[in-house]
Amino acid sequence: MIIINEISKYVLFLGWFHGLILSLVICVNKPKHKIINLLCLIVLLFSLDILQDWITFQGIKFSNRFLDFFNTPWYILIPPAFISIMSYFIRLRFKKVVIFFSIILFISSIVVKITALIALPSDTLKNTMLRINKFFEVATFPIVVFILYDVFGNFSNTKPHKIKLKEILLQKLRLYFYVASILFLFWIAAIIVFFLTKKEYMYKVFKVFMSLYLYWTTYLFIDWLFYKKYKSKSLNQTLNFKEINNYVLNNKIYTNPYLKISDVSTVFKVSDRVISEILKENGFKNFTEYINILRVREAQGLLRKKVNRKHTIEHIGYLSGFLSKSNFFYSFKKITGTTPSKWAKNDH
Question: Model pTM?
Answer without folding.
Answer: 0.59
